[in-house]
Amino acid sequence: MAVKKIKLPKNYQVLSTSMIMLWVLVACIPGLIALTVFFGWGTLINIVWLGLWALVFEALVLVLRKRNLAFYLKDYSALVTAVLLGLCIPPSSPWWLGVTGMFFAIVIAKHLYGGLGQNLFNPAMVAYAVLLIAFPIEMTNWVIPLGVEHDIDAFTGATALDLFRNERGGMLIHEFWSQTSAFGTFSGIGWEWVNAGFLLGGLLLLYKRIIAWQIPLAMLSSLVLLSALFYDGGSSVSGGSPLMHLFGGGTMLCAFFIATDPVTASTTPRGRLIYGALIGIVTYVIRVWGAYPDGIAFAVLLGNFAAPLIDHYTQPRPSSDA
């Protein structure tokens, strides 16, 4: 049987795990800057605090498992988990919320399954889902963004997606939009720029070939398709425009940084398209008809659960050339 030679692109390079994680951290910077500008220093403080505890829990588990500390700590995977969770939880979170989240992310979701490369679910999303279910008040009380009118004594409040989901009270979208200072041009004030920042970082990851294009394209396309299909121009029961869903909540963070996790995502070309589309569909369904204003974490975990089955039925057929 003849063996085909695979011609690699000229700029092809094999990156180590640590280099991939470093590029992911670099790509998070534009979104982190936007979060800091509009919501204050809380997110940056959360990331530093969670990063510290991520390393502590990682080191403790590695010692218990009798693994080489230096070898495993320098892959930066624990820091990436801490950064992703720190970007998702409210900037005003109490100190113990982050510690609890990192325990579930590092100890339960990662090492209980065997460590990096063996975990079935995205550790940051496992932690986020646990925190959201266990501490719903702390997890849904966000800092009021810069530029939003509010009472002088107010510091925290609901996000724009939360307000749109629960406070519209039968109003037409344009009426609610004009009477609620939390909304900007496309979505919530601040969130538009946050999503633009993560979109910019995501394009960097695509350019560096850190992530595959199929997952973000399929997720964003399915989200746009559903929101366009069910958008009726802004009635009292409308789920919101495609632009609102694209630039609201954690859409771009999920599409480029969370759903594309190489360990827990689908790995075949066709499988990535199905996997990404599934996440986009579930995100829209939860946002519009579910109990939570943003269904990113649950959508990703459901996608992680389905990824092995998707890969099983989308394996490329072996070549019959002889």
Q: Which structural traits does this protein have?
A:
322 residues; mainly alpha; 2 domains; two-stranded antiparallel ribbon; 16 helices; 2 strands; 1% strand; NqrB/RnfD; electron transport; RnfD_bac; flavoprotein
Could you outline the blueprint of secondary structure elements for this entry?
Blueprint: H1 17-27, H2 29-39, H3 42-64, H4 69-73, H5 77-88, H6 95-110, H7 123-134, H8 136-139, E1 142-143, E2 156-157, H9 160-166, H10 173-179, H11 191-207, H12 214-229, H13 242-246, H14 251-258, H15 269-289, H16 296-313
Antiparallel strand pairs: 1-2
Helix pairs in contact: 1-5, 1-11, 2-11, 3-5, 3-6, 5-6, 5-7, 6-7, 7-16, 11-14, 12-14, 12-15, 15-16
Structural summary, described in words:
This protein is an all-alpha fold and about 325 residues long. The protein has two domains: about 15-140, no CATH class; about 145-315, no CATH class. It is built from 16 helices and two strands. The chain has helices spanning about 15-25, 30-40, 40-65, 70-75, 75-90, 95-110, 125-135, 135-140, 160-165, 175-180, 190-205, 215-230, 240-245, 250-260, 270-290, 295-315; strands at about 140-145, 155. A two-stranded antiparallel sheet has the order 1-2. Helix 2 (about 30-40) packs antiparallel against helix 11 and helix 12 (about 215-230) packs antiparallel against helix 14. The longest helix is centred in the N-terminal third of the chain and has 23 residues, at about 40-65. The termini are close together. The relative contact order is 0.12.
Main sheet: which strands, in order across? 1-2
Q: Tell me the number of strands.
A: 2
Regarding quaternary structure, what we see is single chain
Radius of gyration, whole Å: 20 Å
